[in-house]
Design a protein that fits this description.
This protein has 202 residues and is α/β, with parallel strands linked by helices. The strands form two sheets. A three-stranded parallel β-sheet has the order 4-3-5.
Length: 202
């Protein structure tokens, strides 16, 4: 529990941010995400190795879950109109407005949700398929402010399956937001029920 772990992937930090959130949820805080991921590491000429690591089994660690970092569907059904809560849809605009249904029974988004796709939090790649780093803090903050998210309110990011939403959660954490709850079930649950409100209006 007291070691510092650095997570990376080859998808601009998307899956690393999800694993970071899982670690936070279970009480493991000494975890970081490598900005730029694998592509960024290579682009900067950092050392690499092809040696396969075989870590020894660690000591058993008792997790300490933080249920307050997650919101469940039943709770969000009753709370989505709460003026002290903001919902952030991190999906593509075509998913948000219902043009892209992503295999769900219902198209659109949670009423009142604000839309900013997770990739808009990243700098453009210098080359096609190249590394994408987080926006500098000031630009990242400006983008979040322009969206209308407030640190004084509880913010609930969601997407299709909780992965892109976790990236948004991580970005807000970087900016110092602390009233965050991930809608982990996201549209996989919400858009496939008949008791959850949906809209395609922007």
């Amino acid at each position: 529990r007291h070691r510092h772990y650095v997570i990376y992937d080859d998808w601009h930090g998307l899956f690393s941010a999800r694993f970071w959130w899982v670690c936070r949820f279970y009480g493991f805080d000494n975890v970081s995400v490598l900005n730029g991921g694998w592509q960024g590491w290579l682009a900067q000429g950092r050392p690499v190795s092809s040696t396969i690591q075989h870590p020894s089994r660690g000591t058993d660690i008792e997790p300490a879950p933080r249920p307050e970092l997650r919101i469940r569907t039943e709770e969000l059904i009753h709370a989505h109109n709460d003026p002290n809560l903001q919902i952030w849809d991190t999906r593509r605009p075509s998913e948000y407005d219902g043009r892209e249904q992503t295999g769900n029974r219902h198209a659109g988004h949670i009423p009142g949700a604000l839309n900013l796709v997770w990739t808009d939090l990243l700098q453009p790649a210098a080359t096609e398929g190249g590394a994408r780093f987080f926006l500098p803090p000031e630009q990242l903050g400006d983008r979040i402010n322009k969206l209308g998210l407030s640190p004084d309110k509880t913010i609930v990011p969601y997407c299709q399956s909780g992965i892109r939403a976790a990236f948004g959660f991580f970005a807000l954490h970087l900016l110092g937001y602390d009233k965050l709850r991930l809608y982990d079930a996201s549209m996989v649950d919400w858009a496939n029920r008949d008791d959850t409100p949906m809209t395609a209006q922007r």
